């Protein structure tokens, strides 16, 4: 089995194909799928799906437009 990052939210979209139902409708596919599962025996991380985004502040340097691409 391939190693991957587990979904800690429980979103069914991680299991369904990201394709439309037809070229005419382009509706989402049904939430039905066949999966192969196995029991996870490792340490479980905390669920952080509802903690909100991490705020990142970058320090920017002002560059006059006349100096760009020189």
Q: Could you say which overall geometry the principal axes of the C-alpha atoms support?
A: flat
Helix run count? 0
Query: Gyration radius, to the nearest Å?
Result: 21 Å
Overall average residue pLDDT: 72
Q: Tell me the number of strands.
A: 0
Helix content: under 10%
Q: Kindly report how far apart the N and C termini lie.
A: 51 Å
Strand content of the residues, in percent?
A: under 5%
Protein name: Trimethylamine-N-oxide reductase
InterPro entries: Asp_de-COase-like_dom_sf (IPR009010)
Structural commentary:
InterPro entries: Asp_de-COase-like_dom_sf. With 70 residues, the chain is mostly loops. The chain has one domain (1-50). It has no helix or strand.
Describe this structure in a few short sentences.
InterPro entries: Asp_de-COase-like_dom_sf. The chain is low in regular secondary structure and 70 residues long.
Write the layout of secondary structure elements.
Blueprint: no helix or strand
């Amino acid at each position: 089995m391939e190693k991957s990052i587990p979904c800690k939210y429980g979103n069914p979209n991680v299991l369904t194909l990201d394709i439309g139902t037809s070229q005419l409708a382009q509706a989402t596919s049904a939430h039905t799928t066949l999966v192969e599962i196995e029991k996870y025996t490792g340490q479980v991380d905390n669920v952080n799906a509802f903690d909100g985004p991490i705020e990142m502040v970058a320090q920017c340097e002002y560059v006059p437009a006349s100096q760009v691409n020189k």
